[in-house]
Design brief:
The complex is a heterodimer of chains A (399) and B (471). Chain A has 399 residues and is α/β, with parallel strands linked by helices. Chain A is built from 17 helices and seven strands. In chain A, the strands form two sheets. In chain A, strands 2-1-3-6-7 form a five-stranded parallel β-sheet, with helices on both faces. In chain A, strands 4-5 form a two-stranded antiparallel ribbon. In chain A, strand 4 and strand 5 form a beta hairpin. In chain A, helix 5 runs parallel beside helix 13. Chain A is globular and about 80 Å long. Chain B is 71% helix and 0% strand. By secondary structure, chain B is mostly helical. The two termini of chain B are 16 Å apart. Classes of the chains: A alpha/beta (399), B mainly alpha (471). The interface between A and B is large, with 73 and 88 residues.
Chain lengths: 399, 471
């Protein structure tokens, strides 16, 4: 029973067309449109469709939980980062962490707080170059605390902000609609496990391709499967399944880019100079900057050294920019930690590493002091023995 | 806000509930007007002022037009409306483009002129609502319509959120009468409106954003030199993406309006089954092409003043139509190419006036049309002529052998989605969606509806803006 929701009737037709449009009526006032409603029991169809969707969603939720996803695992993203970044604008933040995925995944905020009595704001972002974020911090007039900058040489000495670029833009302008959608999504993520960016339909389909077309590979960020679990305040740890599932672990290990051309001397010089300027700005406001180089396995480290040798990168950065830093290779307390996929620490070892680097930074600068109620020192044995069953054949590379 | 966002889901649920409460018709319209301003302000609140300016200028201009006795006076009020609307559009959308081109021209003449770079933010949907408000004044000026009797009806015509930021571009005579009289919404309308919204969002979230956008980006947004396979995969993917993106928006908008009891016109009629370019433009972005025809092509003379004038009007309309899509010469080239296609078709139709193609010839001409349309998308998608040239050479296999770019599964996706899309357009070529749905078994409809909704939910989406928002 075709019916119209419009009060006017159009009776003329063009051959082959059921309904006329403005394209058939040149140079005249267009009448009120007519829309047919197909003669179907739409309320019953809607009820049936809704029931089917609910059943399918339930099944999908069950399946994704079986795969290791959990409700409360919040997707990271530009809005989440921007929310944390705005905390600095209040002017009462004492410590901020910048950097890429390593310092992000390898920092246990609870441990940090229990050691120092201060809870840092986590501003590191996966796949990013910390330098533009350090420069952003340098221009943040209300921040005069300690910035801990996590460095992965390849990321820090490259062009651009990397995958984190949109986060800075989102901080500078976030529309009310985007902000509201972010808050709603976060609320739903606390209840639904399947709301995970890594398990979107198109990503699952694309992951079926295991090199079908020779030479045409997805870029590294798209080849990666789920890597981390994100909680409130962007506390991020490696996904538990990477520690427990050899197949998933093997995939991630095979994904990391190995050979990257060496960084030019000019680029290093430019990076060091930009760092020096940013650090000077922060210091001029009374703040301080410390660098941290988290661990990576020897399997990656050899390639990282080829791209930016420590002497040309890390050492020169500290010297020329006049900053102090903690390199994992120099500290016995950071040796032998477990890196399931070569690049990020296991959940347990992230706590051990945090313990070690916080204590090391506290020795470098008066900005960080250990609380009188700080828990006892941890050692690598605390995570390699009790943790995951993954022992350190996953070595660290020394310098 | 965008339709494919959680914010819109909550917003729309609230609007539906409010609209079904037993308020007076005036109260319901006020609710819709406030909701529409909220919808727009959710993007960038200060830009609501532009919307008000556009609304108020045309309201008073149209009123003054009717009161004016002398033709010159009428023309003055009409021109005031045009200057206000086009001035706003020109400043926000084309200001930097004009400055840059002026600077380049000066440079060619040997004058060193470097204008300051202004960070002008483009108000979302400005091209759409300025066209809608201009059509109000122009229809009154051309005596095709009388001014709205109540400001509320007129303001709602401009602002009504389903069409506000990306069309369909409504004419006052299509929408104002719908606000004048109370309208009720039946359960049938509500449910079918929701079905249309699901279909539109599936096109946008799953097909356009989820599967096709990334494939086009691999070639168009990276510094690569594609071979024939990659160039075709990316270009066909973009052809599919822009259809699914924009037709998806229009379908969602039509569905949203229907849920509230209002009718909006078709904006797409299976355009990839077009045979010829005039047929294409009767199927693609119908409300824009008919707007350009009625307010630009016909006033430029249309086909009433001889062949030469007709070709001039055709090309000028398409060039300006191209520029409407974006402040870049690549869009002008896209429009110009369509103008040339239309002119060539007109010539051929005159030459072969008695020719009636059989089924095979029809299919062949349809495929030729599709092929030539895809070539135009290269200029639409590429950010520079250099990039467009690289992709065009790739399409014709003229680039030196290069490394493969598009992964195997994405080649399969392009083949599956685009052949499905084009096949569906040919099947639906002379039908409406409603006529097909009316004959389908109800159980099948429920299953398909559920499948589309489930795909949207598990694709999740990232609230990406619709391509046409930037226009």
């Amino acid at each position: 029973m075709p019916s119209s929701i419009s009060s006017s009737e159009i009776t003329t037709t063009r051959p082959g067309f059921v309904r006329l449009t403005a394209s058939d009526r040149p140079g005249v006032a267009q009448p009120v449109p007519v829309r047919d409603i197909p003669a179907q029991p739409w309320p019953r169809i809607l009820a049936a469709a809704l029931s089917l969707v609910l059943v399918a969603m339930g099944a999908w939720e069950w399946r994704t939980r079986a795969l290791g996803l959990q409700p409360g695992d919040l997707d990271d993203g530009p809005s989440f980062w921007a929310e944390q970044r705005r905390r600095l604008d209040r002017g009462d933040v004492k410590i901020a962490i910048l950097g890429d995925s390593r310092i992000l995944y390898d920092t246990d905020l609870d441990r940090f707080e229990s050691l120092t009595g201060v809870r840092p704001v986590q501003l590191a972002i996966a796949g990013s170059n910390a330098l533009p974020f350090l420069e952003d911090l340098a221009s943040a007039v209300r921040f005069n605390g300690l910035a801990i900058v996590g460095i992965t040489d390849r990321s820090y000495f490259r062009e651009g902000a990397g995958l984190g670029g949109p986060a800075l833009e989102r901080y500078r302008f976030e529309s009310p609609a985007v902000r509201t959608s972010f808050l709603l999504h976060r609320g739903l993520s606390r209840a639904l496990a399947f709301l995970d960016d890594n398990y979107r339909l198109n990503r699952l389909v694309r992951h079926l391709d295991e090199g079908w077309r020779t030479g045409a590979q997805f870029p590294v960020p798209e080849r990666l499967w789920k890597l981390g679990t994100v909680m409130d305040e962007r506390q991020t740890f490696i996904w538990a399944r990477l520690e427990n599932d050899p197949r998933v672990r093997a995939h991630q290990r095979s994904t990391w880019g190995r050979v990257v051309p060496p960084v030019s001397a000019a680029k290093i010089l430019n990076t060091v100079e930009r760092t020096r300027v940013a650090v000077a700005k922060i210091r001029a406001r009374g703040g301080e900057v410390v660098f941290v180089r988290p661990p990576s396995a020897l399997e990656l480290r050899v390639y990282e050294e080829e791209t930016v040798p420590r002497t040309r990168g890390w050492d020169r950065l500290l010297e020329s920019a006049d900053v102090r830093g903690v390199h994992f290779a120099d500290d016995p307390a950071m040796q032998g930690l477990v890196l399931p996929e070569y690049s990020h620490l296991s959940r347990a070892c992230a706590t051990v590493f945090t313990d070690a680097y916080v204590r090391a930074v506290a020795k470098l600068t008066p900005w960080l002091t250990l609380s009188p109620r700080a828990p006892p020192l941890l050692s690598p044995a605390d995570c390699t023995a009790a943790g995951t069953g993954l022992k350190p054949p996953l070595r660290h590379g020394g310098s | 806000m965008v339709f494919n966002s959680l914010t819109f889901a909550v917003f729309f649920a609230c609007v539906l509930v409010l609209h079904r409460l037993p308020f007076s018709w005036t109260a319901k319209k006020i609710n819709l007007l406030i909701a529409s301003y909220l919808f727009y302000a959710a993007w960038n609140p200060p830009f609501v002022i532009l919307l008000w300016v556009s609304t108020v200028v045309d309201w008073w201009a149209a009123k003054a037009l009717v009161r004016a006795q002398r033709p010159v006076e009428r023309r003055a009020w009409m021109l005031l409306s045009l200057f206000a609307n086009l001035g706003m559009l020109g400043f926000f959308k084309y200001g930097q483009f004009l400055l840059d081109n002026f600077s380049a021209l000066m440079s060619m003449l040997g004058v060193a002129y470097q204008p300051a770079h202004y960070s002008i933010v483009l108000p979302v949907g400005i091209s759409f609502y300025t066209f809608a408000t201009m059509s109000y004044t122009l229809d009154v000026y051309l005596r095709r319509a009388v001014p709205a009797r109540h400001f509320l009806d007129y303001a709602l015509f401009v602002t009504f959120f389903p069409h506000l930021v990306a069309g369909p571009i409504m004419r006052p005579t299509e929408l104002v009468p719908q606000f004048a009289e109370p309208r009720s919404v039946s359960k049938q309308q509500l449910c079918f409106g929701l079905a249309l919204m699901t279909l539109g969002l599936f096109q946008k979230v799953v097909l356009a954003d989820g599967f096709l956008a990334g494939i086009a980006e691999r070639v168009y947004d990276r510094d690569v030199i594609p071979g024939a396979l990659d160039a075709w995969a990316a270009t066909l993917a973009f052809g599919g993406q822009i259809f699914c993106d924009f037709a998806g928006y229009s379908t969602t908008a039509i569905g949203a309006a229907m849920c509230l009891g209002f009718a909006m016109p078709d904006n797409f009629r299976f355009p990839y089954a077009a045979v010829g370019f005039s047929d294409f433009w009767r199927r693609w972005h119908i409300t824009l092409s008919s707007w350009l025809r009625d307010y630009l092509y016909i006033p430029l003379g249309g086909n009433r003043h001889g062949e030469a004038r007709t070709y001039f009007a055709l090309l000028a309309t398409m060039l300006l139509g191209g520029l409407w899509h974006g402040a870049s010469w690549t869009f002008v080239a896209w429009g110009g190419l369509h103008g040339i296609y239309l002119a060539a078709e007109r010539r051929l139709r005159t030459h072969f006036a008695g020719y009636r193609p059989g089924p095979a010839a029809l299919l062949g001409l349809g495929l030729l049309t599709y092929f030539l349309i895809q070539l135009t998308w290269v200029f639409f998608r590429a950010k520079t002529f250099t990039k467009a040239g690289v992709v065009l050479r790739g399409l014709f296999g003229l680039n030196a052998p290069s490394a493969p770019i598009v992964p195997g599964i994405e080649l399969l996706l392009v083949v599956a989605i685009i052949s499905g899309l084009v096949g569906a357009h040919w099947l639906m070529r002379t039908r409406t969606l409603e006529s097909v749905l009316a004959r389908a078994p109800a159980a099948l409809l429920a299953g398909v509806w559920a499948a589309l909704a489930f795909a949207i939910i598990i694709e999740q989406g990232a609230g990406n803006a619709f391509i046409y928002f930037q226009f």
